[in-house]
User: Which sequence fits this backbone?
């Protein structure tokens, strides 16, 4: 990474690991430590917000340049030439997490029991920045996480189906982002560096039913772009192809670097997301099982009572 990028990421309170990985404290982890407020993933799936390690093995590697992404986008690399060892990434990521939460212990609002537990993360959210499937040893990384008894979530843009097909082991829960209802919208909104991204995403959707793990279709919905009830039929067609266990329609939030490209008016309300989710659930035959107003997200599920994933 260039020094200018390193300086910028450190200023944004990233903990950098090796040559291409990074860690950052999630907003909801901080809320959990100081105010006992939980991330929607805790309510939906059973993970513990304060024990979640939010990281990425590709802090500066992505094949998209999405307009709505709120992370810093200085992507200059698309291939990891010399990948760091998975054990090094995991151990150093945990150490960076421990370093980043050190100061919370001195805050009188901090729950000390939670702080002590936070020093021993049992959940890895591989989603912070970039496209994690560009790291060629991702399966090995998840294997090490599982040996430590850690739950693993992977969020991918779905452009590398061949990686997902061969990955062993898979994460405990795999998210695929379904952002666009049409190829034209995909090109304008996701701004891919690759020429066949849309076709690769379709391959991934077709692959999902054969993967032996919990799968989620994740939607970031943006007014004037991909959020319109007229698109529900298109989204439903893709979701039926993928047969995920869960679908997460979530509203775009006007924060971070996305403010340079989006407007406040692009942000749907929770009520609008809920109405969209109800119509989508009817279209695909899924249950509307949960919602989290402060995160503008709802949860649809193939079954009425899915199992909690916490270990």
Assistant:
């Amino acid at each position: 990474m260039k020094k200018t990028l390193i300086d910028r990421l450190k200023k944004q309170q990233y903990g950098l690991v090796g040559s291409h990985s990074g860690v950052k404290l999630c907003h909801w982890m901080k809320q959990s430590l100081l105010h006992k407020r939980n991330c929607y993933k805790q309510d939906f799936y059973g993970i513990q917000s304060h024990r979640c390690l939010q990281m990425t093995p590709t802090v500066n590697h992505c094949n998209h340049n999405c307009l709505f992404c709120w992370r810093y986008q200085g992507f200059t690399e698309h291939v990891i030439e010399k990948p760091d060892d998975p054990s090094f990434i995991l151990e150093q990521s945990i150490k960076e997490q421990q370093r980043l939460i050190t100061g919370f212990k001195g805050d009188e609002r901090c729950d000390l029991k939670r702080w002590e537990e936070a020093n021993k993360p049992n959940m890895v959210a591989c989603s912070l920045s970039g496209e994690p499937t560009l790291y060629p040893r991702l399966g090995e990384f998840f294997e090490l996480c599982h040996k430590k008894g850690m739950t693993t979530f992977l969020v991918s843009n779905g452009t590398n189906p061949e990686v997902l097909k061969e990955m062993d082991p898979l994460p405990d829960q795999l998210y695929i982002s379904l952002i666009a209802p049409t190829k034209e919208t995909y090109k304008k909104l996701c701004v891919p560096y690759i020429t066949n991204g849309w076709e690769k995403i379709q391959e991934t959707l077709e692959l999902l039913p054969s993967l032996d793990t919990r799968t989620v279709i994740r939607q970031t919905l943006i007014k004037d772009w991909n959020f319109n009830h007229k698109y529900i039929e298109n989204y439903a067609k893709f979701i039926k192809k993928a047969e995920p266990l869960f679908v997460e329609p979530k509203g775009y939030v006007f924060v971070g670097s996305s403010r340079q490209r989006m407007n406040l008016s692009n942000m749907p309300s929770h009520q609008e997301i809920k109405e969209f989710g109800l119509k989508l659930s009817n279209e695909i035959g899924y249950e509307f099982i949960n919602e989290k107003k402060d995160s503008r997200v709802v949860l649809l599920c193939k079954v009425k009572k899915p199992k909690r994933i916490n270990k």
About this structure: The chain has one domain: 3-301.
